[in-house]
Amino acid sequence: MPESLESIDVVAERMVAGGSCIAHLDDGRVALVEGALPGERVEARVTEERPKMVTAAVEVVLDASSDRIAPPCAEVERGCGGCDLQYADPAAQPNLKVEVVRDALRRLARLSDVPIDPGRALPADGYRTTVRAAVRGGRAGFRARRSNDVVTVDSCMVAHPLVEEVLIDGRFDGATEVVVRVGARTGERMVVVSPNAESVSVPPDVRVVGTDELGRGRRAWIHEELAGHRFRVSAQSFFQARPDGAEALVDAVRRALGDPGADAALVDLYGGVGLFSVALGTRAPVLVERSASAVADARVNLAERDAMILKMGVRRWRPVPADVVVADPARSGLGVEGVAAVVGSGAPRVALVSCDPASLARDVGQLASVGYHPLGVELVDLFPRTHHLEAVTALELTEDAADVVELHS
Ligand SMILES: C[S@@+](CC[C@H](N)C(=O)[O-])C[C@H]1O[C@@H](n2cnc3c(N)ncnc32)[C@H](O)[C@@H]1O
Q1: What would the pLDDT profile of 151-208 be if each residue is shown by its tens digit?
Q2: Whose CA is nearest to atom 13 of ligand 1?
Q3: Closest Cα to atom 12, ligand 1: which residue?
């Protein structure tokens, strides 16, 4: 074990998954430095030491990147750690995220020549229509940087104004956590309060529900509009955290699938409340989703279509032939079962939607190994001012692999 260190003076190289930058120490170890931007020389306090790796957090920026800005949010000064890239110019963030995906594809999938498009910029402020907050002393707040403490806030620059009002003015006595969710285009609002909503004060239009009531079967929902469609979204259903971002995601998926026509046989794996099945406009989509709440919403949202909505895990689904597949798994990615479902469909074109660079790289690597050639990745920056990213990968079944899939189906 090399000599132990309290602080390090390093040059940050590239950003990696999670938003930290890689640097190299003179003793040969790699450092993961939080709070740095590529190219910057920083002094950083060591937070953890291992035989081959050190993690550290920036204390002083000795040589700043031109992409560094003073955090514009007043709450950062008070210790709020809600948005971990407040120090990076929003205009620079899409390209930083491109490099994160490039690094993951190269290291985890040995793919170094996949084109990656940063996508078009979305507004960096007032965008989030779903926010999960901790509650302390009846007030909503966010985790402090590098700690489990909660900082109650007087403003939130990334929350949609309809969310921000509930976060700031709401009082949630006896609660430990709240989720505020609004329909930006319908104005409908809802709070889900844990463990119960017995002593809650919010503006009169806000629907209030406790997680205890949800557990006993109570239903509560709001509606959102996007891409010319209306969606019902229940308290326990997943929905994209901003409608303009959901529209950008639908556009990226449509491009990845080569603009499928109304008659295309679409399979929507991990389909949620039906965002892609509804917005892509195919006549008879097949949607696979395991959440009962999301499936109930999908049945309402797809009522006008000849849709087949299957409430089951992807592992249990018996693949049917498809022209196009959209697969939008949770953070952990497709894994073996999701890859098997895609392959089983034999679809010539696939859009993989990923929210984690490591699982994106693993999934693309596995799909490439069974004959799905990655044509390109398009980022959709749903979460400016944070390291989080969303990416759509277009994959095409190569002819040789199509023969193999045919043979086994
Ligand atoms: C990232 S969300 C995407 C939902 C939808 N595509 C959208 O954009 O609104 C992932 C969805 O997959 C569902 N899910 C997670 N694991 C699953 C599995 N093994 N089988 C089926 N659905 C699953 C979750 O309930 C969630 O609705």
Answers
A1: 999 999 999 999 999 999 999 999 999 999 999 999 999 999 999 999 999 999 999 9
A2: 270
A3: 270
Give the range of the structural domain holding residue 363, as residue numbers without chain letter: 90-123+242-408
* Among candidate residues 70, 119, 71, the one with its CA nearest the CA of residue 95: 119
The minimum-distance atom of ligand 1 relative to the CA of 291 is 25
Do 98 and 184 reside in the same domain of the chain?
no
Determine the distance separating the centroid of ligand 1 and the alpha carbon of 292, expressed in angstroms: 11
Number of domains in the chain: 3
Is residue 237 a part of any domain in this protein?
no
Residues 248 and 300 in one domain: yes
| Mean pLDDT for all residues in the chain | 95
Whether residue 330 is found in the same domain as residue 382:
yes
The residue whose CA is least distant from atom 14 of ligand 1 is 270
Are 146 and 107 in a shared domain? no
**Residues 16-54: tens digit of each pLDDT:** 999 999 999 999 999 999 999 999 999 999 999 998 999
